[in-house]
């Protein structure tokens, strides 16, 4: 039985197994239409974003050489924050997904890219692409559900540690890249099971250590030193830029799977899952953010989290183009397309983190008779 | 030539220190990634070139004049370069003979491209590319060159764009040093690439030009050479053209036991015709398996005991991407075929790709 089927209202009770396969075929057709048309326009887009980001980063850092002068600090810090956000969200995340591999440009390729983040690209690719995108929202399989430190679903067992989770979440937001690095190398599991001497873990830890050293040296030593008398103010500027980038990406990512309306699934529900069922799980397990074109770019088009989860390897600039077709499909099959403006979605996700820091209330879920196994195809 | 390894400890130069500092400033990207934005042709950059001019030659051929980057090491007439150009956003590599003399005063090089029907890259280069475009290059290579001691008597047998490496040789003054006969085939007089230039050379007596217009006169039979160029077997001969012509020429020269006087260039790329399944070789592991058109390369490799990188096994995580050195694979999700020849640098997802012909996987 899936987790969602235990709910008072099962959102897919009205779908037959054939419906689900037809939904899958329609989504395949949307994907194929983009692939057939993918080309020069997309290549121009990503090269323009990369060029803009690099120009912005270097000019902001140049301005910060004079960060003792307050307007220079403000302009430089703002520019560097935007550059770092673009680098992680619209470029790094998406390049590492292989969205641009089709261009066969070794300079913009998932196998060669390294990003401005303390988690080395290959470790992040493994935990994010291979585990999170494959097991999206499967309780106990997808560690993105609360990152192993929080309870974000009623079906995750409560532990007194969860009382502190609003605070953990706040700290995680501020130092998100370090949280991600620890998460990608499965630091928590290895600590708990006292397996810190495991050679694979140690190799990963060494790689993270090297990456942290390079990142810290750049942001907190080299650039401040280059600024001479502005040493301290440049240090404060890069710290601020990293902090703001962390809080921003944390907020965007929380909006992807935690807000109200997003469904979770049980481990057994994905055994023998068909292509259609996999698609359906991505449809129900993700939430979008509505907003302007600028917002979409700054979120790395993760504001189209639903489209991204359906088609993780399509170029990010295409998500907003296919979104109306995807949404129409949701409407036609009576499924809930979860979306909302950023403040609303962030508040909804935070409310869940706060609410679930306490154990479930007894009456929070009506016990209902088991529904037929629609998503397992065994009905 | 021998090389001796230096026994001295590596001296850290000022330049090395500067590069290391620059790397610490720009990490995780390289200083080069920033420099590429402003000076893609600088010394030390991967070899690239800027298209300076595109000159139509015939109705389906054009010459590209290229300003190569500072890393360009020069060439010997007759050699070719591999040129990488983005067509519909995808980097494609092809080989083209250099048609420029090696010592051009402006340092520019040129290649002449003939658009072949349905040729994705050749049509782009002949009809769509614009001056200013940056292209990617490899250093010149190829053995289709004149020996250091110029032979006294030379015969060139060419057809179509097979004239291009020969033009490189003629433009570097060969005709002034040797007695040259050129037998060239093209469909019509207007289709002769460099027709005007060749005829002018012939007019001033620099070479003897035999034009064969195959639309009216039919394909040249190698037996006709005896009448056209009576001393052809006494000449050092360079032949470049379609595969059928080269096969006939090679057969004829070896029948006369004179293969050492014949030099050929098979300028057409290997044509890969996709089929269903094929022989898959994992070159690093030294394993070869027969794989059908429904088995993924990942499954084929794993069942043969090759250590394959893998991830989601459903085409979303890109954890299984490996280089396809050459051959053809089919994407099982939508049937798209990807082909590669050595040097293309094509990477494929093994978990959703099956062999569509013989393939070599670099693993």
UniProtKB/TrEMBL annotation, chain A:
Record-given protein name: Linoleoyl-CoA desaturase
GO biological process, one term: lipid biosynthetic process
GO molecular function annotations of the record: oxidoreductase activity, acting on paired donors, with oxidation of a pair of donors resulting in the reduction of molecular oxygen to two molecules of water
Domain Fatty acid desaturase: 72-339
GO cellular component: membrane
TrEMBL record, chain B:
SUPFAM superfamilies on file: 2Fe-2S ferredoxin-like (SSF54292), Ferredoxin reductase-like, C-terminal NADP-linked domain (SSF52343), Riboflavin synthase domain-like (SSF63380)
Keyword Lyase: no
Keyword field: 2Fe-2S, FAD, Flavoprotein, Iron, Iron-sulfur, Metal-binding, Oxidoreductase
Presence of keyword DNA-binding: no
Domain 2Fe-2S ferredoxin-type residue range list: 278-363
InterPro entries, A to Z: 2Fe-2S_ferredoxin-like_sf, 2Fe-2S_ferredoxin-type, Beta-grasp_dom_sf, Cbr1-like_FAD-bd_dom, FAD-bd_FR_type, FNR_nucleotide-bd, MRET, OxRdtase_FAD/NAD-bd
Gene Ontology molecular functions: 2 iron, 2 sulfur cluster binding; metal ion binding; oxidoreductase activity
CDD domains noted in UniProt: fer2, FNR_iron_sulfur_binding_2
Any one Pfam family match given in the protein's UniProt record, by short name: NAD_binding_1
Domain FAD-binding FR-type: 44-147
UniProt cofactor(s): FAD
Name the UniProt record assigns to this protein: Ferredoxin-NADP reductase
Organism of provenance: Micromonospora marina
């Amino acid at each position: 039985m899936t987790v969602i089927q235990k709910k008072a209202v099962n959102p897919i009770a009205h779908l037959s197994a054939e419906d689900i396969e037809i939904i899958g075929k329609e989504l395949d057709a949307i994907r194929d239409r983009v692939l057939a048309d993918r080309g020069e326009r997309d290549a121009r887009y990503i090269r323009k974003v990369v060029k803009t980001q690099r120009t912005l980063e270097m000019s902001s850092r140049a301005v910060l050489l004079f960060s003792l002068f307050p307007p220079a600090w403000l302009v430089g810090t703002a520019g560097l924050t935007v550059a770092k956000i673009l680098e992680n969200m619209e470029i790094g995340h998406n390049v590492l997904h292989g969205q641009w591999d089709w261009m066969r440009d070794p300079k913009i390729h998932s196998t060669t890219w390294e990003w401005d983040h303390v988690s080395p690209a290959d470790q992040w690719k493994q935990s994010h692409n291979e585990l999170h995108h494959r097991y999206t929202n499967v309780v106990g399989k997808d560690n993105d559900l609360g990152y192993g430190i929080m309870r974000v679903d009623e079906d995750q067992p409560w532990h007194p540690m969860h009382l502190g989770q609003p605070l953990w979440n706040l700290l995680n937001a501020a130092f998100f890249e370090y949280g991600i690095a620890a998460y990608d190398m499965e630091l928590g599991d290895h600590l708990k099971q006292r397996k810190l001497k495991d050679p694979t873990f140690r190799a990963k830890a060494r790689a993270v250590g090297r990456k942290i050293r390079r990142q810290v040296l750049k942001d907190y030593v080299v650039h401040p030193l280059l600024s001479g008398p502005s040493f301290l103010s440049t240090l404060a500027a890069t710290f601020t830029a990293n902090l703001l980038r962390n809080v921003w990406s944390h907020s965007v990512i929380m909006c992807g799977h935690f807000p109200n309306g997003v469904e979770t699934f049980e481990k057994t529900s994905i055994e023998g899952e068909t292509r259609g069922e996999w698609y359906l799980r991505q449809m129900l397990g993700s939430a979008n953010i509505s907003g302007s074109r600028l917002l979409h770019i700054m979120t790395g088009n993760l504001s189209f989290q639903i489209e991204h989860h359906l088609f993780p390897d399509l170029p990010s600039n295409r998500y907003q183009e296919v979104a109306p077709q995807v949404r129409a499909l949701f409407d036609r099959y009576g499924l809930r397309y979860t979306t909302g403006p950023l403040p609303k979605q962030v508040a909804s996700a935070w409310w869940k983190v706060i609410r679930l820091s306490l154990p479930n209330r007894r009456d929070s879920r009506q016990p209902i008779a088991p529904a037929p196994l629609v998503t397992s195809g065994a009905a | 030539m021998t090389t001796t390894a230096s026994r001295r400890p590596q001296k850290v130069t000022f330049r090395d220190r500067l590069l290391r500092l620059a790397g610490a400033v720009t990490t995780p990207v390289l200083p080069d990634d920033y420099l590429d934005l402003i000076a893609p042709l600088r010394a030390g950059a991967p070899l690239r070139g800027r298209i300076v001019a595109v000159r139509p030659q015939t109705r389906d051929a054009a010459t590209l004049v290229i300003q190569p980057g500072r890393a360009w090491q020069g060439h010997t007439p007759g050699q070719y370069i591999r040129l990488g150009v983005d067509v519909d956003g995808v980097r494609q590599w092809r080989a083209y003979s250099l048609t420029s003399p090696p010592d051009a005063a402006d340092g520019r090089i040129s290649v002449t491209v003939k658009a072949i029907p349905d040729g994705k890259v050749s049509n782009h280069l002949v009809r769509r590319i614009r001056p200013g475009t940056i292209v990617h290059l490899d250093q010149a290579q190829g053995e289709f060159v004149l020996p250091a001691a110029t032979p006294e008597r030379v015969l060139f047998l060419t057809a179509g764009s097979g004239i291009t490496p020969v033009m490189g040789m003629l433009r570097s003054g060969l005709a002034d040093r040797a007695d040259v006969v050129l037998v060239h085939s093209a469909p019509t007089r207007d289709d002769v690439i460099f027709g005007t230039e060749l005829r002018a050379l012939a007019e001033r007596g620099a070479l003897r030009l035999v034009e064969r217009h195959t639309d009216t006169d039919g394909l040249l039979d190698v037996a006709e050479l005896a009448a056209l160029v009576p001393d052809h077997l006494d000449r050092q001969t360079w032949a470049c053209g379609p595969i059928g012509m080269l096969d006939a020429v090679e057969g004829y020269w070896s029948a006369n036991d004179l293969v050492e006087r014949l030099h050929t260039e098979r300028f057409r790329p290997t044509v890969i015709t996709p089929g269903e399944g094929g022989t898959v070789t994992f070159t690093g592991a030294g394993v070869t398996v027969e794989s059908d058109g429904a088995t993924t390369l990942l499954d084929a490799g794993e069942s043969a005991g090759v250590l394959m990188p893998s991830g989601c096994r459903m085409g979303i995580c890109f954890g299984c991407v490996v280089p396809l050195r050459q051959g053809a694979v089919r994407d099982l999700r939508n049937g798209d075929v990807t082909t590669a020849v050595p040097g293309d640098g094509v990477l494929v997802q093994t978990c959703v790709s099956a062999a569509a012909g013989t393939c070599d996987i670099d693993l």
